[in-house]
Amino acid sequence: MSKTSDLFNEMIASTPQDIKQRVDWSFEIADKIDGILKERGMTQKEFAKQIGRSEAEVCRWVGGTHNFTLAILAKISTTLGVPLISV
Fold first, then answer.
1. Residues 6+ apart with CB under 8 A from 70
2. What are the DSSP calls for 8-58, one per residue?
3. Model pTM?
4. pLDDT per residue as tens digits for the range 17-68
5. What is the Cα–Cα distance from 66 to 72, expressed in whole angstroms?
6. Where are the domains of the chain?
7. CATH 3.40.640.10 holds for 17-80
């Protein structure tokens, strides 16, 4: 293995499990939002206007690295008419 791969694997192994879970959930939510928009033929710009947010913010959401709050998840779910999370 290369030094870069070794370093990467070491960093992944040392990442706390809660951080890994948060990243996984962020990407799953982003994929769900993106999938719904694509199913509806809706652009990020159109969705941003509908939800009252900037296109750049929606782009960050769909990018998968956004740290979603419950408030914004509720707003997105309500606007799309689809629950993004369940407890």
1. none
2. HHHHHHHS-HHHHHHHHHHHHHHHHHHHHHHHTT--HHHHHHHHTS-HHHH
3. 0.82
4. 998 898 899 999 999 999 999 999 999 999 999 999 999 999 999 998 888 9
5. 11
6. 17-80
7. no
